Amino acid sequence: MNLIFLxxxxxxxxxxxxxxxxxxxxxxxxxxYAANAMPGAVQAAAERTALGADGTTIRxxxxxxxxxxxxxxxxxxxxxxxxxxxxAIFEPGATPYDxxxxxxxxSGAPVVEVLERVEAAIGDFSVQGIDPRxxxxxNQVLQAxxxxxxxxxxxxxxxxxSVTFRTAALERRRDLGILRAIGAEQGQVVRLFTVEALxxxxxxxxxxxxxxxxxAVAMLNLIWSMSFHMYPLTGGVPLHPPAxxxxxxxxxxxxxxxxxxxxxxxxxxxxxxxxxxxxxxxPFHDVTALRLALGGIVTLIxxxxxxxxxxxxxxxxxxxxxxxxxxxxxxLPPMARGLRPFFARLxxxxxxxxxxxxxxxxxxxxxxxxxxxxGFALCVAVMGLVxxxxxxxxxxxxxxxxxxxxxxxxxxxxxxxxLVEYVRNRSEVDASSLLYRAxxxxxxxxxxxxxxxxxxxxxxxxxxxxLETTAADAAYLDADAAAQIIxxxxxxxxxxxxxxxxxxxxxxxxxxxxxxxxxxTQSYVVAALISDFYPETGDRLAYLSEPVFLADFxxxxxxxxxxxxxxxVYAEGIGSQIAAQFSTPEQPITISDEVALRERMIGDxxxxxxxxxxxxxxxxxxxxxxxxxxxxxxxxxxxREIGVLRAVGADRAQTRRMVIVEALxxGTMxxxxxxxxxxxxxxxxxxxxxxxxxxxxxxxxxxxxxxxVILAVGGLALSALVSLLxxxxxxxxxxxAALRCE
Length: 742
Prior knowledge:
Elements: H1 2-13, H2 15-50, E1 57-63, H3 73-80, E2 85-91, E3 98-105, H4 111-121, H5 140-171, H6 173-181, H7 186-225, H8 241-267, H9 271-275, H10 284-306, H11 313-346, H12 350-360, H13 362-398, E4 405-409, H14 417-424, E5 429-442, E6 445-452, E7 466-467, H15 479-488, E8 494-498, H16 499-505, E9 512-517, E10 520-530, E11 541-545, H17 546-552, E12 557-565, H18 570-582, E13 590-593, H19 594-637, H20 639-647, H21 652-691, H22 705-722, H23 724-731, H24 735-740
Parallel strand pairs: 6-11, 8-10
Antiparallel strand pairs: 1-3, 2-3, 4-12, 4-13, 5-6, 5-12, 7-10, 8-11, 9-10
Helix pairs in contact: 1-7, 2-5, 2-7, 2-8, 2-19, 5-8, 5-11, 5-13, 5-19, 7-8, 10-11, 11-12, 11-13, 11-21, 12-21, 13-19, 13-21, 13-22, 19-23, 21-22, 21-23
C-alpha cells in the first residue's frame, strides 16, 4: 500500500511526464486493438452476406481480382457429391464483379465442416464463405492488407510503449540515485518504478481499449460509406478476443517490462554515478554497435526475401520495419552530421545547439527517429501499394466491351409515368422494358417477383444468362433459344426463376413452382433458370410476363426501366437528361449505364484503397505522438540548460525556435529513412500481389513522386506543429527558476 501511495504521489508531482507516458500507452493500445478487431467485424458481415436468409444457401464469390485460379464449372460438380450438400451451381458473371458458386446445404449440416470439405475438394482455392478461422474480406488482397496493418500495429504499439517507458526511466536515473543516496534499497526502488509502470499501464490500457473500440466503429462506418455495400456492415464491432488479448499483453506486460528492466539496470548503478546527469547516456555507443550488427543481419534477411519475388515478399517488408527500429539509433549521429550544414544555413547558431543536445541525449532522439521512420515508411508503402492496384483495376475495366443498355431505377417510390412516356418517345431508344416488382413467398421464404416485357426481353443484358439445367457443364442458352423462352412466357403461367430459388424449392425446368401472391397461391411452370442477383433483395428471384404479373400482384411497383439504345454513345447523354428532368432529392432516380458502371467500379476501388490511407494514418499517429513526447521530455530534462542559455542572452523567440528546429531535424531524418524503407516495403507487397496474380502488374515500386512530395511537406509541417506546445513551454521558463532546477 505504501508503494502504491508513493508511486501515485510521484506521478502527481510529475504530471506532465506522466500524462505524456499515459497518452503514449492509450494511442498504442487503441491503434493495436482497432487494427486487429476490424477484420472480425468484417468477417461477421461476410458471414451474414454469404449465408442466405433460409440458413442453408451459401454464395461463394470469386472476384475478378484477388485469386490466381478462378472458379470453374467442374468445381460445382465436385462439391455436389460431398456430404452435407444437396446441390451446387456455378454462376459465371452473376454480378459485375464476381463469378459465384452457390451451394445448397442439407438441413442441419455443420456449415464450417461442409466448407472445409468444399475447400479440400476443389483444390488450391480459399473458400470465401463462413469460416471463423479466417478474417473474411471481400477478396484476398484486402485480407492480406488487414493482416499487414495488424502486424505493423502490433509492432508499433509495443515499440511506442516500450521506448516511452525506457526514455522516462533513463531520464529519471537522477531521481533513482537520490532515492538510493537517502537510504532506499535497490529492490525498493525497482518495485516503486514497477508499481508506477503498472498504474500507468492499467489506466492507459483501459483508455486505449475504449478509444480503440471507437476507432474500429468509425473505420467500419467509413468502409460502409465507401461502397463496400456487398457486406451489411451494420452489426457493430463485436468483442474480438485475439485483439483484446494482444492489446492487454502489449499495454500491461510490455509497459511493466519496459519500466522494470531499465529501473533494475539503473538500480545497479552507484548512487553518485546515477546522480550525475552525464551518466544517463553512457551505454549508448555500446548498445548502438550491437543494434548495428543485429540490424544489418535482419536487413540482409529481409532484402533476400523481398527480392525473391514470391508471395512471401510481404513478410520481408515486415522484417524491414524491425531492421529500421534496430538501425535508426545507429544512423542518428551520421545523419545529423550530414544534415547539419544544410540546417546551419537555414537556422544559424540554433543548429549547433540542437546538434549538441542530440549528441548529449542520443537515446531520446534515437527513439523519436525510430517512431517517425516507421510512421513515414508505412505511409510511403501504402502509396506504393495503392497506385498499381488502381492502375490495374482501371485497365481491366477499360478493357470491357461497351454495352448499349441503360437502366433507370427508383426502388422505393417508383418511376413516374411521364418518364416512361419520355423514354419511349426518344429516337435513340430501340427498345425498353418496364420492371414491376412485388414480394411473394415460396417454401416459407420471401421471393422477389419481377415482371418482363416479353417484346423486348431479349435485348436486356440480364437474360443472356439463361440455363435449362443445373448440371455443372451446362452452358448459357444462345440468343435464339433465350428469345423462344422469353416469348413463351406469354403463353400460360410460366416463370423464369433464379438458381438460388431453384435450390430452395427443388424446382427445375418443366416443374411447377408455387408462389403465394395477393390473389392466393399460384402455380407456375419453370421455363428456364437464370443466374441473377439483386444486391437489394437477395438472389431468390422469379420473372413473370408482364400481363401475368399484373394479374397476380395487384400491389406491384413500377421500380425500373431497361432501355436498349441504337448506339452506346447515347447512353451518357440520355441518362443525364433523365436525371436532370425527373430526379429530385426527395425522389431520387438511379441511372446505370456502361459509363456509370465503369466509373463505379473504378471509384469503388479508389475509395477502397483510400481506406488504406486512413489505416496508415491511424498507425502513423503514434509517430507524431512520439515526437511530442520526446520534445516535451527534452524541455523538462533540459530546463537548467535552457535557463543557462537564457542567462547568457538567448531570448524567448530563440528558445522557441530551438525546439522547433529540433523537431524539423528529426522529422527530416525520419522522412529520409522512412522513404527508403517505405519504397522497399511497397516493392515487397507489390511483388506478393503480383505473385498471387492479384494485380495485372509486374513487381515494382509504384510510389508517385507527387505523393511523396505531399507527404514530405505535410510531415514536416506536422512536425513543426507538434513542436509548438513544448516550444511554448520552453520559451515561458523563468531564468532564475530554470537555473534552480535539478
